[in-house]
Design brief:
The chain is of the alpha/beta class. It contains four helices and 40 strands. The strands form six sheets. A twelve-stranded mixed β-sheet has the order 8-11-14-17-20-25-28-31-34-37-39-40, covered by helices on one side.
Length: 337
């Protein structure tokens, strides 16, 4: 692909400082860039490296200029970086049609623009929207729905009655709608509580590889519009997650917990069941949340606490060895031993 700096700048809502007709053929980091490449810099250190690289042009903020390189100045270099990558490395296109090896129930409704790849299984009364993609080896159970332009990567499993919105991306190995983990002790054994609900996933959600989203015991497990979920995350039955939240790798949310919108759960965070986490909450890595969290707060630690309190405890723990040493000295003086 070859585009001029002016053409790229237009797509990035930026302005060109330098040759607007220079040809750009690729995108690379400063240390790997070659002539014809575009690179980006979001701070002064990165900009210095980009200026000294072989790159032809640099995406940079409004305050940057150069006598060495062509600059595409933008309001937010990191956002422009994401847009530029999509220009130079577009998503693969999937031709409409159904692979001969796919097994499809006669009652399924599949839009003619959808792509159904090899070895997919589609159950009774399934509805698959326009331009949806099932790449390969996907299972979609009875009465499930997939919205327009949703993309299932290989070996994704969607259980019966799951409802998946538009432009959703679900990566390989993820399971949507498996049984919630519900048992009740019946005298001497654990009796299974039938999980008869479903999963509802809003538009523009993305789930990484090998995630599990369990269906509700009664009612639905819900993931709101625009939420992004990393690899190896467990979402238990009847969890509700708001819009545009971020859940990082190896996190787990226990049954019936409610998470607000624009929240961030860092890696390996655990949320106990039936809790309510407010909007715009941030929880630090490895935290174990055992209490409700109000809107806008940051919590850390095990058990998780408000960040200022958690930091005071961390500092106190670092001082504990010296304190114990002093206590031992005081005991020695007081006892004379």
């Amino acid at each position: 692909m070859t585009l001029t700096t002016a053409e790229i700048a237009k797509q990035l809502a930026g302005e060109v400082l330098g040759d607007a007709n220079a040809a750009l053929t690729g995108f690379a980091t400063a240390d790997a860039a070659q002539s014809g490449d575009l690179t980006f810099a979001e701070n002064a250190d990165y900009f210095a490296a980009a200026e000294n690289s072989a790159a032809t042009a640099i995406i940079a903020g409004k305050d940057f200029s150069s006598e060495k390189k062509i600059i595409i100045r933008v309001a937010n270099p990191r956002v422009a970086f994401a847009k530029a990558l999509a220009i130079f490395f577009p998503e693969p296109k999937f031709a409409p049609g159904i692979h001969p090896s796919a097994a499809i129930a006669a009652s399924a409704q599949i839009d003619p623009t959808a792509h159904i790849g090899p070895h997919c299984t589609i159950g009774e009364r399934v509805k698959i929207g326009a331009n949806a993609v099932l790449q390969a080896g996907n299972f979609v159970g009875d009465d499930a729905t997939l919205g327009d332009s949703t993309n299932l990567f290989p070996n994704v499993t969607v259980y019966s009655r799951s409802q998946i919105g538009k432009r959703v991306r679900i990566h390989a190995g993820t399971v949507i709608g498996a049984d919630g983990f519900g048992y009740v002790l019946d005298v001497s054994f654990h009796r299974k509580v039938p999980q008869v609900g479903n999963v509802i996933i809003g538009d523009e959600v993305e789930l990484g590889s090998n995630c599990s989203v369990d269906r509700g015991a009664l009612g639905a497990t819900i993931i709101g519009r625009g939420t992004k979920i990393d690899n190896l995350v467990q979402i238990a039955h009847n969890v509700e997650i708001g819009e545009h939240s971020i859940i990082c790798a190896q996190g787990g949310i226990a049954g019936s917990a409610k998470l607000g919108s624009y929240c961030v759960l860092a890696g390996q965070v655990g949320i106990a069941g039936h809790l309510k986490i407010g909007n715009q909450v941030t929880v630090g890595s490895k935290a174990g949340v055992m209490h409700n969290i109000p809107d806008g707060e940051m919590w850390l630690g095990i058990p998780a606490q408000p960040d200022k309190q958690a930091k005071r405890i961390m500092i106190a723990l670092q001082r504990l060895p010296d304190l114990l040493k002093k206590v031992a000295e005081w005991e020695k003086k007081l006892t004379g031993q």
